[in-house]
Amino acid sequence: MNFKQNELTFQLMVEASPNAIILVDNLGLINLINKQTEVLFGYTRKELVGQKMEVLLPSRYKVNHPNLRNHFLAAPQTRAMGAGRDLFAIRKDGSEFPVEIGLNPLETANGSQVLASIIDISERKKIEEATKLQTKKIEAKNKELEQFTYIASHDLQEPLNTIISFIEIIEKNPDRVYNDLEKDSFKFINQASTRMKELIKGLLDYSRLGQKSEMKNLNFKLLVQSVCHDLDHIVKKTNAKITIGDLPNTCGYETELRLLFQNLITNSIKFMDPEKAPEISISAEQNKHITTFSVSDNGIGIDPKYNEKIFTIFQRLHGRKEYEGTGIGLAHCSKIVELHNGNIWVESEVGKGSTFYFTINSNIKNDEKI
Ligand code: ADP
Question: I need a labelling partner for 112 at 20 to 30 A (CA). Which of 16, 21, 218, 336 fits?
Fold first, then answer.
């Protein structure tokens, strides 16, 4: 292809571009436009060429624009216009629309010119606005729900405490001897109330998680060692062997993460295979600011069909006679992981053991938490 043909191809490409392309000279006059400029702004080529380019700007930008243009020409370089600001253009019919503009300086036979490439971003803006609105609504709903849980749990505790104390008064009444049925009834009322108290406490703790915490840099090896130290009693009782691998130092919410490890390790011991002592291994892999932790055990395992159900509050796979518990532990873990913009999941085989994985993202600011 010779030079003339190249030039022609280039012109055709500019003409066919999906962006509006405008060539502006050093006096701010429009020299050339492509087809898309006509479509986007509603002017014909004839109407625009030779006009000041400010004709395409809303009046509030017109005064300052020549200064900005001269500034650009004094030190021209290819760049996006109005970095970090919302830019708008105006059509022939006076309607405004949001745009993204790229500026390219050109040295031509007629002096320095600027090639501006303009994209209408109305649709993108609409989607962004809709997403922002949706996120705000979800945040408000979450707050409302947390508030509701908190108030409800508080209010539920009061009548329960009254029941417990009155039952104690009746049970300990020195003037009466109770028959076996009555004694059993007191025992059941007491057990049921105590359990209800545990459940409510779990709900309250759940709604409070992450409320007052600050992100800080944590030594995870020390953190997990200290959690294991707190669990010394049940570790010794069950002959559990806990292996802690190389864990990184990374950012997180300390109290919540302690609770998370405590729940996972306690479960690994609680759901042990009765035939063998628990063997638990804790390790981590770091990839930039995402760390994936794993807590694996050689316990009874979980049927994969329950892999998601177990993370829901109050969901348990066994009766209380088999294994003590409230079904809140993994819901807590799930919320704590969410606070760290992470995920939690389990891989398991019945009779072989389970590995719980969770990720935490140390690249979140305190005000970004959910
Ligand atoms: P809880 O321990 O109070 O029952 P969780 O929310 O901690 O409640 O766990 C929910 C259920 O998930 C448990 O009842 C148990 O059936 C199952 N589970 C949790 N961890 C393990 C584990 N390491 N091995 C086998 N099953 C487990």
Answer: 16
